[in-house]
Design goal:
Layout: H1 7-21, H2 30-56, E1 60-64, E2 73-77, H3 79-98, H4 100-106, H5 112-131, H6 135-154, H7 159-190, H8 195-208, H9 212-229, H10 239-245, H11 248-281, H12 284-304, H13 309-329, H14 333-363, H15 376-379, H16 381-395, H17 401-414, H18 420-445, H19 459-477, H20 479-491
Antiparallel strand pairs: 1-2
């Protein structure tokens, strides 16, 4: 076995072990430097793994411990998993760098070490969700991600953040309950928990036409549960306040990464458990498509009415998540590729927008409303540029990540059946709605007026925002190679 096959296990173990040592640091400020250093290492290892697997055109499974399944556990990695791990590592690192100043301001000094521990546990849970080949292990880390995400919201310790975290926890528990019921039902009729074993068991049940109704019910329960946890319309009521009330780094990570982690599990269920054919015969793909189509429109309309910058960005997140559901609901290989491209594009873009907004809020004496943010980009030019480029990207400006993702979805929609016309209409209408709230916001932040003073230059913040911008351009211009890499990963999924 090549040494690089240990990278998934080592990455998860390194992240979790680094979280455990943070409480023993004599200076709690060291915790933030440690977790950012670990994320640099994980990103480098993921890049090495991605290069090797893409060149070899292979995937592999890694047995945890000395016990085989079902008592032991398996990790699985191919080009797609390595690409996701690299993207998540970069976004986590850049979000914590861009939001470091707000962490020091918003989180009490004696609890900043605990905050770093929580963020590292959250990162470890996301990596495990990417790599795991076991459905119940995926559920365990779904719960770890949910609990740590709620704590990340309440870390600011304002009245609004506490209420938002409680609402977040209630919705998360509801989603988790549905997922657990679906897993229990699926285990009862198959006796399997590994994705590869589940795939074979489900194929046998479909061929024998037995337990068809329980199979459909289990798929429906897990789909609805993951939809709630990923803030898909109409289950997004908890999202705006949770993201708007959290500190900048938490908002960027929650929107850019946590919501995507649940969708990666949904992608695994579609490809490696139920299969596209079963979803098509039971019309589950139509449900995903309709959820995506309605969400991308209604959430965008809700964003139009927001007077608070983070509230608008949060509703925009729900709309962008709907693009992923739209791609999954097309029921084609091209649709799955488009959904994966949207995961990458939105993870990078939305985290950049939240980070840029955080810099402008800080330059406006903490003002969160558009009336207070007028001229904020002049006082925090790099943050204003990040917000501007991110907003234009989501509007579909060419050469940026959002355009490539929408182009990929449009190509996939042309190969669909009855979904072609509704999908193209939804993409066009959603892009117009995005422009209707992002362009006025961009004009406002670059206008004159408003209160505040020029934000002092900080290398960690400005450097992170510049890297965010470069990554967004790379996702927008390297469309062909990235799409081919995703396709190769899905073929080996």
């Amino acid at each position: 076995m090549p040494l690089t096959y240990n990278i998934p296990m080592f990455s998860i173990l390194l992240v979790l072990m680094s979280a455990m040592v943070i409480p023993f640091f004599p200076k709690k400020s060291w915790g933030l430097n440690l977790i950012r250093g670990v994320e640099v290492v994980v990103a480098a290892l993921s890049a090495v793994l991605l290069v090797q697997l893409s060149e070899a055109g292979e995937s592999f499974t890694y047995q945890m411990g000395h016990f085989p399944a079902p008592w032991g556990n398996l990790l699985r990695c191919g080009p797609l998993e390595a690409l996701l791990a690299l993207t998540f590592s970069l976004v986590m690192l850049l979000s914590l760098c861009a939001g470091a100043e707000d962490i020091r301001r918003d989180v009490r000094a004696d609890r900043q070490g605990s905050y770093c521990l929580l963020m590292q546990l959250l990162f470890g849970a996301l990596l495990a969700m990417i790599y795991t080949d076991d459905l119940f292990t995926a559920y365990v880390f779904i719960e770890i991600a949910a609990v740590t995400a709620c704590m990340a919201v309440v870390a600011k310790e304002s009245g609004r953040s506490v209420v938002s975290a409680i609402r977040y926890l209630i919705f998360s528990c509801l989603g988790s309950g549905l997922v657990l019921l679906g897993i229990a039902l699926l285990y009862c009729i198959t006796g399997q928990l590994l994705f590869s074993s589940l795939e074979q068991a489900v194929l046998e049940l479909v061929a024998s036409r037995t337990y068809t109704l329980p199979l459909v019910v289990s798929a429906l329960l897990m789909t609805l549960g993951l939809s709630i946890k990923s803030a898909q319309f109409p289950f997004h009521a908890w999202l705006p306040d949770a993201h708007a009330s959290a500190t900048t780094a938490s908002s960027a990570v929650l929107s850019g990464l946590v919501l995507k982690g649940y969708l990666i599990i949904l992608l695994k269920l579609i490809l490696r458990v139920y299969g596209p054919s079963l979803l098509a015969t039971t019309y589950m793909d139509d449900l995903l498509f309709l959820l995506g189509l309605t969400g991308m429109l209604f959430a965008s309309v809700a964003a139009l009415r927001q007077e608070e910058v983070k509230g608008m960005i949060a509703y925009s997140s729900s709309a962008q998540i709907s693009y992923i559901f739209l791609g999954l609901g097309l029921g084609t290989d091209a649709g799955l590729i488009a959904a994966c491209y949207q995961i990458l594009a939105h993870a990078m873009t939305k985290s950049m927008i939240f980070s840029g907004a955080g810099a402008m809020i800080r330059a406006s004496n903490g003002g969160h409303y558009w009336s207070q943010l007028r001229g904020a980009a002049r006082r925090a030019p790099v943050g204003g540029l990040a917000f501007t480029v991110g907003g234009l990207s989501l509007c579909g400006l060419p050469l940026l990540a959002g355009f490539s993702a929408k182009y990929c979805l449009a190509i996939a929609a042309l190969d669909a059946q009855w979904q072609t016309a509704p999908a193209l209409f939804g993409l066009a209408a959603s892009s117009v709605l995005n422009a209707m709230y992002y362009i006025p916001a961009i004009l406002a932040i670059w206008g004159r007026g408003g209160e505040g003073e020029k934000l002092p230059w900080k290398w960690e913040r400005e450097g992170a925002l510049v890297v965010f911008l470069l990554c967004n351009v790379v996702l927008g211009t390297a469309f062909g190679p990235i799409r081919d890499l995703i396709q190769q990963g899905l073929n080996l999924f």
